[in-house]
Amino acid sequence: MNRSRIFKEKVAGNLMLLITTAALLLVVAMSIGLYVKSAPIFEEHSLWDLLSASEWKPFKNQFGFFPFIMGTLWVTAIALLLALPVSLLTAVFLTEYANSGIRRWVYPALDILAALPSVIYGVWGTLLIVPWISEWLAPFFVEYSAGYTVLAGGIVLNVMILPLLVSLFVEIFSTVPQELRDASRALGATHWQTTKQVVFRRSLPGILAAVVLAVSRALGETIAVLMVCGNLPQVPHSLFDACYPIPALIANNYGEMLSLPLYESALMFAALMLFIVVLLFNLLSRIILYRLKNR
Amino acid sequence: MKIKYIEEFAIKILMALSLLTVLGFVVGIIYTIFHRGWSCISWEMVSSLPGGGFYIGKEGGFLNAIVGSLYIVIASTFLGLLVSIPVVFYLNIFLKSHSKFAYIARMAYDVLFGIPSIVYGAFAFTLMIWLGLRTSLLGGILVTTLLIIPILIRSMDEVAKNFPRDLLEASYSLGATRLETLGVMLRQIAPGIATATLLSVGRAIGDAAGVMFTAGFSDSIPTSLSQPAATLPLSIFFQLSAPQAEVQDRAYAAALVLTIIVLVISLAGRFILHKFSKNKI
Description:
The structure holds two protein chains of two kinds. By secondary structure, chain A is mostly helical. Chain A has helices spanning about 1-45, 45-50, 65-95, 100-115, 120-135, 150-175, 180-185, 190-200, 205-220, 225-230, 245-255, 260-295; strands at about 55, 60-65. Chain A has twelve helices and two strands. In chain A, strands 1-2 form a two-stranded antiparallel ribbon. In chain A, strand 1 and strand 2 form a beta hairpin. In chain A, helix 3 (about 65-95) runs parallel beside helix 6. In chain A, about 45% of the residues are buried. Chain B is mainly alpha-helical. Chain B has twelve helices and no strands. Chain B has helices at about 5-40, 45, 65-95, 100-115, 115-130, 135-160, 165-175, 180-190, 190-205, 210-215, 230-240, 245-275. In chain B, helix 1 crosses helix 12, helix 4 crosses helix 6 (about 135-160) and helix 5 packs across helix 6.
């Protein structure tokens, strides 16, 4: 009887090892699959051409990703610029200043923000942000804007990465030993001076890691951005231009792409680009965060 | 007054402002969705299938999307739990706490968690073409399962890490094998499993980019795994891109339904974690 129990244990152990390894293999399988699918386009276009050309005419065999890359970068940069100060200050408030009564109300609110589906953010963006930009903000700067702009995409994305940033910052700040804060306060530093000189300095690598993680989240966000940023394949020159980020390109054209073999591989190349960048960013920031946690 | 006290005061104001901004976004988004959706929603919309001319504003509802979403979410959550509970168990009981393999595996799940759903969708789509499959309920279920497995594993793992060693040793000392300790562990981390499940249900029901490629869209409720299925987020997205106001109104109503589902799930998750994780050893 004992033998069968031990046998069961061994079989289950190996089975579970197999499942656990499968996840590691999924990363490999995805990169191989996407690479194989995007390989045909490299036979006709060099990598540099694809990245730097700005003509996007799939039916004339012109695949320039430059506008899409710029669109993605603009939207992500705006989102980060808006979200970083707000999330940093909120996290400082929650870890250094707030009492547990306030935290009990703020954390569920952040949970809700994190849980809302991206299509809801898109609806909110089209209902509120887009009209606000076209009717209130844009007239101060440009003659006409439909509201579906880089700025709208950035604002919506900013709200979406806020909860992620805040929760990462809170986690990072709480790894700073309380003794360090006490020592600083004992020397006469104010609360904010302590935060600035001790907490920030000690958690700087973590802050960077959190930012990288949030950027990679922002890079891959699809539906919400697609709904508000106008989707014109052009390089944006101001906040009030429409843009066309890479995920939106993939999502919008998945139906047509089967009509041309190169079209499909161009879109798969877009997915591969996204995959590689997000993979590297994630690896980098996770390694830093793991180090911090185990220090 | 010294400069440092002025600085302290200024930063406090800034902090209050940013906290208000965050809370303002939460309240603002929920208010917008409820305010707009409430004036559009009707019983017919949530209880009937799209009729003829649905996308030019004729009668019908989005029951197809609600049912499609439920099918996908329930099936993928079930499959996801089936895969992730053994993994969490393996990581925490079978492997030593400083195992290199466990470190790499956790890292891999974290990285997978960060991969955008559109990339999962594109990858699954190429696989499906390679296998000669069409967009179907099955494809949607599988890609959603892949999407939520990292969330399930990582959030259950956080709870399982705090699993008391004493309980483990008590179980071993009674002669149980590691596998037989599964029951003890499952009971101990049950609230964690519940929260992780709700978290992943929330993510699964809201995902649009992954199912867009794999589940497709259809106006009827799928009766087999090989038929395409509609999902709520995609239904909102497609209806909102229609020019007619009647169709857009239904998108707002569908957005309200989706928001209510997600809110209930999210609050229930927090409630369960607080209510039941108090009896720690």
